Task: inverse folding
């Protein structure tokens, strides 16, 4: 008989969690009390962020393993820390699951979370395990950032270059290919075998912590992580900074394989990049005087690929996508959790 | 037509959230970026805790308003801070809701959360709003505590008195009366009118922040908040401290009205206190040499009522409830989220 969460019980499962999670420096008291106790570096600001994921909305256990979900939950917050120029340190997670949840699912989730925590040097110091109708998870993360080297959404100025670190469209392409492959798509299966990075971009995204820190170190003061798609996330910078933007369609950095995925899926690869989201790339506003230096540093230091793909404009000038034929259209597409017709995954 | 979350959209709702929440000292950057930025007191340890609530498991919108749910979500974490001897400071919340959620429910939740945040001096600095099959919410809280004045679950020693601050059983009595009143219980309705504190204990619990701090200030080093019922929570102290416990049934402090509620509900009021949970009272282990001083301080300073109701024993001696007739029975009853037959609310 398969073991379930119900069989093990809340406190049994919590014991397994405590045994699996290792605690790094700064943790004065880890899981098991009413709260964890932490020692933070007094020279730094603390950063604080939260992300939630819900089965059937953010993930589908037919396409991702429970371990993938645990991994991605942590990386979503790690990416937020990266987008502030900061370093992730401590996390707490709350997990909701049906009583009959297969223990392998619960332990897989824990394993993926623990692997991501080890990869990014995060101590998971506490949590809450509750009953819920579907698998739901929320993770909050504390990090640190130097006060004079923060990347804010509000830091873009008219004339700054729009720079993207990392490739775009891979997570969305991977998700659509996984769906197509699951429903019998032979071409999708072949492409996924060749371009394993596409499935992996959806299942096991990376957080660009070194890259965020390097941008801040080079004097950049504005970034966001691309979680809703470049169109929406560049839009968030525009809102918070009070500027407009022009994105050059031909210079948007598509991740490897996205072009072929687009052809196979009969969709514009640019749509995957602009509206797909969950790539956890970084979009930054870089003052023109810094662009060359930033690009050179990234290219010489084996960091993620960097691309200049637009510029921020005067506030009244709106948000546009400039096409290779010289025309332009409104920069659109993104993810609104409550909008009609939206349907991720 | 009633306005729904779907109509307003994720970003529209987030704007309303940002407008409603006020930011206190220490908040360098509030909601709206990839992460909030905080300045913490370098002389203090940071405390970090999380609590989650799920519709149909932790609350029933027929018995509590959405504002009650928002209030209670924050107070659950405030109570964790109190149980460490600390002060709550900053919170982030993730909220999951169906797309068709009545906007009044979403705004009610926000209002209750904001009221609790103001009451306890907590700045809500960020959040995540997602789609989910039922209303779900998770809140993480950062607080501070002096390193030499921490209340830990592991701090009980053999011989210490078991002390309870606050009354027990009111939240459980309130919940059972609300259920009975809703299903037509005339007596329950009358008692709730007289003892509004019982419904309120379920809907709008209080966190004993001053009391936790005072215990720590008086030299106490062990406490827990009573969220699972005194039997389970005293048990948690026993596990973490490696001791046994004897609870004196006749000295367990029942909250006002709990005795009459028990009679009306045909249940032992002591069961409500031992197994009911969610009272957010504090259970502490107080060294015998401090008991008198602690009790006197609490009685003279208009803090919550305090009661000595048991003592911690040698580890091998187990966990017992001593009855007035001189007999004893195993200390049992509490809340396991995945156990068969459990059913809160």
Result:
């Amino acid at each position: 008989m398969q073991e379930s969460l119900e069989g093990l019980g809340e406190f049994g499962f919590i014991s397994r969690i405590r045994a699996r999670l290792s605690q790094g420096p700064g943790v004065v008291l880890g899981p098991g009390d009413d709260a964890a106790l932490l020692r933070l570096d007094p020279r730094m600001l603390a950063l604080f962020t939260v992300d939630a994921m819900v089965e059937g909305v953010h993930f589908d256990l037919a396409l991702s393993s429970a371990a993938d979900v645990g991994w991605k939950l942590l990386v979503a917050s790690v990416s937020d820390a990266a987008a502030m120029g900061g370093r992730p340190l401590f996390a707490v997670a709350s997990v909701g699951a049906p009583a009959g949840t297969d223990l392998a699912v619960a332990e897989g989730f824990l394993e993926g979370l623990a692997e991501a925590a080890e990869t990014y040097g995060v101590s998971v110091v506490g949590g809450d395990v509750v009953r819920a109708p579907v698998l739901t998870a929320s993770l909050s993360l504390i990090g640190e950032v130097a006060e004079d080297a923060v990347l804010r959404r509000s830091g873009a100025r008219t004339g700054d270059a729009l720079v993207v670190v990392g490739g775009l469209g891979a997570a969305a392409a991977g998700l659509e290919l996984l769906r197509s492959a699951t429903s019998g798509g032979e071409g999708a299966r072949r492409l996924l075998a060749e371009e394993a990075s596409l499935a992996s971009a959806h299942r096991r995204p990376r957080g660009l912590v070194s890259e965020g820190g390097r941008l801040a170190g080079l004097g950049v003061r504005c970034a966001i992580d691309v979680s809703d798609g470049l169109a929406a996330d560049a839009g968030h910078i525009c809102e918070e900074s009070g500027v407009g933007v022009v994105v050059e369609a031909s210079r948007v950095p598509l991740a490897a394989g996205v072009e072929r995925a687009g052809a196979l899926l009969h969709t514009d690869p640019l749509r995957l990049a602009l509206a797909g989201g969950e790539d956890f790339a970084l979009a930054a506003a870089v003052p023109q005087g810094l662009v060359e230096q930033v690009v050179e540093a990234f290219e010489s230091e084996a960091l993620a690929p960097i691309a200049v793909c637009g510029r921020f404009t005067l506030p009244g000038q709106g948000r546009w996508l400039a096409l290779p034929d010289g025309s332009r259209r409104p920069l659109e597409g993104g993810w609104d959790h409550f909008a009609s017709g939206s349907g991720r995954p």
